[in-house]
Amino acid sequence: MKTSIWNKLVLWLSLGLLLFLNAYTFSHTASGWIFGIFLFLLFLFARRRFFLIEERFVTRLAWGCWIFLIALQIAYVFLIRNNVRYDAFWILDQAVEMLDTRQISPTLANNYFSQVPNNYGLTILTYWFLSILKLFGVPSGWFMRAVQLFNIAFIDLSLLFIYLFVCKIRGKAPALFFLFFCTLSPYPYVWAPYYYTSTASMMFACGAVWIWLCICHAASRQKRFLLAALLGFVCILGFQVRATSFIAFIAIALYWSLHRERGSLKNHLGPIAAFLLTALLTLAAWKGVIRHYVPFDTRDTALPVTHFMMMGTHGDGSFYMDDLRYTVSLPTAEEKLSGTLSVIRERLLENGFSGNVRLLLAKQLNCWADGTDSFVTENALCTDYNRLHTYVVGSKSGFLTAYSQAFRALQLLLTCIYCLLSFRKKQGDGMFLIALNLLGGMVFHLLWEAGAVYSIAFTFFSYAAAGEGLGLLEEWDFWKRRSPLPILAVSSLCFLASALFLLARKDYYTSQEQLASDFVANQHMETSGENGPPMKTGQIWTQTFETDKPFNVLDLYYGCPDTKNNASVYRLTLTDESGRVFYDGSIYGKEPLQDLAYSVQFEPVIPSGRTGYAITIEPLVQTEQDFLHFCSLDTSRVDMYPYGGLFIDGAPQGRDLCFRIRDLHIAMRASKKEYCLFALLLLSMELVFVFEAFRLVHQKRRPVA
User: Fold this and answer.
1) Dist. CA 397–CA 518, nearest whole Å
2) Is 18:419 a contact under the CB 8 Å cutoff?
3) How many CB atoms lie within 10 A of CB 616?
4) How many whole angstroms separate alpha carbon 307 and alpha carbon 326?
């Protein structure tokens, strides 16, 4: 074996850093401790039950979890009807255009693909997928939902690979618990419509870990060669989809260094050679694919790696538009590299040591502490709205947010427990490979651009570590020697605290009114409009939309080059299909912008059935210097809002204005019916925990016959 010093160094440093990052994030999560205890007890008792049932029932329960998970994901996609946003939309938009052009465009979406070549991988995979759908006659109107179903496949294959890994390492019962943990998590459902590299890339990382385990347990040399070759293919293809996929291979190499027997390298030369050869062949083939689909040079236009590191040195490390504009403004690759490096050095020196530590910690929280993975923002851009949206992105989204945040807190806490109880192991077992992947993902985004959605690619690794943490806690000798009385006490306390809290807060949730806002239509994309057509004097722009829901607020998005001295004036009207006027007012260029939106409120419009409406904009005073740029999105390939469109002087433009229609109203946080149902469900489940804990105490005290 390798020296124990090396093993302990890797093990202790990795687990120590992972423990610190998770503990620090856990201390900053926004979760209610009562609901957190409830979730902990739920998983504790569920895990114990899984170990008591027969193996055939474990398999049946696993199938049940899979069916429930997949069915709910598909239902969520078709009920929420969410459209993909930002970079993901440009990938879909470009893939649809490629069905006709067979090439990636350097000018689409404000030169997006000449600046971001790292998204060619998913764009080409999407194009191939849509080509198959087109071959089978699937209409283009289904493409948005089709790629989201494709995204579900990426998510669930990732989950399957980790499930199989845990099953191989720990057995069927722990694997079932991991699957059960994922099934009750909100994330596999709210991620379903996301479709981007965050979800697509994790399949390759999780697949790499599973293939590695298969190589370790392969019965024949020939099988090891084939699996190693497959691993090489997955390595390169995953890297092309998202560079973070390569973290899995770094983790595998580090893990192998701990467990490789001294002098055994020659036994591994064959599989290593197969891996490298396949990786090189795949890389060469992929370069040929890129040359085929990308007929332009991106050397001077592509954003360098240092650009994303530069964005990670500003504020909390989030996307920063001024940094993007700065990098794009530099004309050559050399200037882009030197310019971004110069900004990085300047910011790091300005921060100083303590400032840079605060920056790293802020980026860690940015990625992991929020607990929602931005599901409200990502699920808000929908073609139409229904009751489900009220609870996901609307006025009652707080329920799902609270559950997500409590779940994230429990996930982080159990991962901390895993790290603490794993320090006793000299080398770390198979689950240590999972921990290395999670650590790699966290450390990477300390150095890179940060964002809540970037935790997605590593969440299943975190879930596996969390499940292992709960298992180690149960197996701990100190825990085994203790009486189940503390569990009974905690269960009873949780039940009583929940009952008192629900009773005390009843009026707060069911009687106190608050200002609430629900979407009726949302055609707002922050990345749209920069290359849209300018409004000309004398033109009349009309955006149509349809709804059968009441509304009283219009948000219109626009850009203004100079708000201080802008003298432009525009007339804004809102009418229905019969010509009835609901709003008639003016927009002034001097008015301050609020989130780049001009908002108007009017008396509630209550449609009688599905009704068509029109937003009309007419310039009254406008010059080449004083004007407003009304943001719009090209819908000639993918229509984000099929219930209307933009017309200029009556002619359709194949675009949509950036607008939102909302229903602003006074409402309670929850109805009495909703509150009573939630209270009944929560207290009944907690009462089950009390009875289960009482049974354990009774079983412990019962004399052995």
Assistant:
1) 10
2) yes
3) 17
4) 10
Residue 279 pLDDT: 93
Distance CA 420, CA 434 (A): 15
- The per-residue pLDDT for range 235-280, each reduced to its tens digit, is 999 999 999 999 999 999 888 888 766 656 667 788 889 999 999 9
Using DSSP's 3-state secondary structure scheme, residue 171 falls into: coil
The answer for 206, left when phi > 0, alpha when psi is -120 to 50, beta otherwise, is alpha
Q: What is the DSSP letter of 296?
A: S
User: How many residues does this entry show for the chain?
Assistant: 705
Residue 144 burial by CB count (10 A; 0-12/13-18/19+): exposed, middle or buried? Answer: buried
pTM over 0.70: yes
Average pLDDT of every residue of the chain: 86
Cα–Cα nearest to 698, from 475, 494, 488, 473: 488
The pLDDT of residue 262? 65
> Residue 563: pLDDT band by 50, 70, 90 thresholds?
low
Could you write out the DSSP letters of every residue in 616-677? EEEEEE--SSS--EE-EEE-SSS-S-TT--EEETTEE-SEEE-EEEEEEEEEESS-HHHHHH
Distance CA 199, CA 503 (A): 41
Encoded amino acid at 218, one letter? A
Task: Tell me how far apart the 2 most distant CA atoms of the chain are, in Å.
Answer: 96
At 14, is the secondary structure helix, strand, or coil? helix
Give SS3 for 123. helix
